[in-house]
Structures are given as C-alpha cells and as structure tokens.
Amino acid sequence: MKVFKNKIEMLSHLNICRAGKSIGFTPTMGALHDGHLSLIKKSKNECDITICSIFINPTQFNNANDLQNYPKNLKRDLEKLDASKCDITYIPEVCDLYEKNEGAKKFNFGELSSGMEGKFRPEHFNGMATIVEKLFQIIRPTKAFFGQKDLQQLQIVKELAKQSRASIKIIGGQTIREKNGLAKSSRNKRLSKRAINEATLIYKCLSYCAKHKEKGIPELNIFIQQQFKKEKNLSLEYVEFVSLKNMQPIKKWQAKNKNAICIAAYINGVRLIDNIIL
Questions:
Q1: Whole-prediction pTM value?
Q2: The domain made up of 2-173 is a member of CATH 1.10.8.420
Q3: Does residue 188 contact residue 267 with C-beta atoms inside 8 Å?
Q4: What are phi and psi of 171, to 5 degrees?
Q5: Cα–Cα distance list, 216 to 4, 208, 223, 266 (Å)
Q6: What is the model's pLDDT at position 126?
Q7: Domain residues of the chain, as ranges?
Q8: Extended strands (E) in the chain
Q9: Under CATH, to which class is 186-277 assigned?
Q10: Active site annotation includes 36
Q11: Of the residues 13, 33, 36, 124, which is catalytic?
Q12: Is the pLDDT of residue 62 over 90?
C-alpha cells in the first residue's frame, strides 16, 4: 500500500498507474471500523485500483468539541487498510486541501438537505460536500463508496455528482452492525460497554418498525417516542419517516424500498444516527 500526505505526490503516482484502469475511492475521517473496511472490500471487488482518504474535515463540524474529540488512531487505521489490501491511502493536512481562511462552499441540494441532519447540524452538508467535491476533482474516481448508515449524506453525494456532471458512480454500502445491532460508527469508540448495550434501542426500534410496518407511520412514530422516554441515558433528537427520493417526511408508506426511517439520538453526550429502508 502506498501512503501519501500531499496531493502532488499522490497524483504523480496515480497518473502513472491509472491508465485504462477503474478507480474506486472511499473518503473517510479515520477511526476506521468494519463498516469502512466493507467499503474497501467492495471497491477491491469492483475496481482495479482502490484509494482511501483519511481526513477529519473541519468545515463539516458545527460543534468545536465534536471536532476536538473525534477519535483518531492513524497507525491502527493504516494497519487495517494495509491488511485490506487498499492500494493507495491519502492522508492530507488541511493546507493540502483548503486555501488559507477558506470555508465551506455553498451548495443547493434542495429538499434533500433541508431536514434531519440539515436541520440539526447547520452547514454540515455544505462542509461535507465541499471536501467530497475537492477529493473527487483530485482523484477522479470511477466509483465512490459511501455507507448507508449516513443515508441522507449518501443521497446528497449522489446529487453532488449529478450537479457537478462528474462521471462517477456513487455506490452505497450496507450498514455494518455490532453484535447487538448497533450500527458501527467511529463514535462508538467513545462509548462504554454499558452505553453500547443501551444504545441498541435505536436498532430495536427500527427492527420493530420493519416487523410491524402494517401498523402505519403515526402509530410507529408514537411507539419510538415512547421507547426513548423510558430510557434515562438516551435522548431522541429526531425520528423521521421519509421518502428515499427526497428525504422529506411522509405520512403513509410509498412503494417497497422507497421509504426510510431515520433516527438520531444522544447517549452520554455521543451522537448516534441510524436508519432502515423499507
């Protein structure tokens, strides 16, 4: 595996070996877990060259403490990527991707970004799209791989590729879970074993909805609200039943696999998100 800290050296290498080959790319912020590695595996299966970036992007954090406390373990990350046979890892400094005093670019993703994460984390998607667009322009991948756990982000990245007319196919990877169903997340590293066990309520609520879809959205919404009220360490930020097409709230089910239930919750100060497509 080749590791590069600046884009000039990385591109010098990539431009030599990319001729006639497909490029798979997975952008990450490090603290890699099985969810990330499943995307690397998917890229290895579908593309000739697999690239992963590790960069904690400052413009997509609304909370300075969240940025400061975001888990980091570069040595372990590189070991995992090497074991996964990733071909190239790009680990730039901020100055390699942003000009001095450069902030997030303003995008218009319409309804896709107006609710849920867009509502509770203002400017998050502008920051995320800014860095993803930069990385796309540098690497020019054939396919880019993103996890379904961040479902709203996945849909926005698809729209970003469309708006920028980039010939990049955006691939969603299924959510990888802990043994108790909790979605794998870098933020899980900040949780105690007890908190991880308690946080499984998120997945239990989603699973209940999948098994009892016939109860209808209003009743299922009430059920989830009630379950969280019983837990003193878990606080529900939002639960939304949305259309997969535009990530806007729905009152009744649409066609199969066109609906999503999205949850954001806090436990011990750590914010977790998850979803299920129905």
A1: 0.96
A2: no
A3: no
A4: -110, 130
A5: 51, 12, 11, 26
A6: 98
A7: 2-173, 186-277
A8: 2-4, 23-28, 49-54, 88-90, 143-147, 169-173, 234-243, 259-267, 270-277
A9: alpha beta
A10: yes
A11: 36
A12: no
